[in-house]
Amino acid sequence: MKMHLKYLLVLLLLGFAGQTPADTEAQLAQNIHELRSEGYRAATYLLIDNNLFERVREPGNRETYNDALGNMEKLLRLMDNPQDLRTPFNEFVGLIRELENQSLEEAHYHLATVNRIMMAHGKLDKAAGAQYSGLAGTISEHLHALHQQSLETSQILLLYQNSMFSSIGIYFIEPGETVFQNIDASIVQRSATLKTLLPELSGTLNDLDKQYSFIQPRLLNHRADWVPTIAAFYLQRNTETLNDLAREQVRQNKAS
After folding, report:
1. C-alpha span between 226 and 160 (Å, rounded)
2. What distance in Å separates the CA atoms of residue 96 and residue 100, rounded to the nearest whole number?
3. CA separation for the pair 218, 108 (Å, rounded)
4. Quick check: pTM over 0.70?
5. What would the pLDDT profile of 93-124 be if each residue is shown by its tens digit?
């Protein structure tokens, strides 16, 4: 699930020439959202890769989270490396490299390092969220809704992965007994809102509903029949589609 590299390179070459302030703010909001989205993808696959219940360590998990980290690096450079995002990102990456250098015999240390990584991810996500909040009121309602739907899909997926780690804290959202149910209800309600805001995309949005509903029972009953890779497959497809739709909204706004 790779971000559209061509999209990033075109932006890097063309910059923001000819854009209105509203266009610039929408593009910046998109970039920050995608940084967060890739951060959740990296954290999700890192947890899958380091879950002690998995007997076989699939190389694809490490490839996926490193691909996400590479995309985050590109996005930070595209945004001129804001220090309040660059610093926690470097910490996030540094801890992941520390984990990768630990031997299999050091498994009892792994979870302590994974916990530190998740703390670093939470710090980075909150910093990016704070920047995004300053722009949320300047972008269109439908673009903001697409971003939020993507974000909460990423969050419920990471919560699901986190549920099999009794010693790993939750740092990206306020935990609680009903956190799964609350995010699920928000995703379902926002799906209906998006169909009202973007009726021309009802077919695509219905497809997203079908994919979400397939894995939804697992999310709400996350202590039974754990399926980390299947959940990631379906929900990452949804976030990827939502991010594509958001990019298209930004592009259309520039063209209008």
Report:
1. 9
2. 6
3. 28
4. yes
5. 999 999 999 887 776 678 899 999 999 999 99
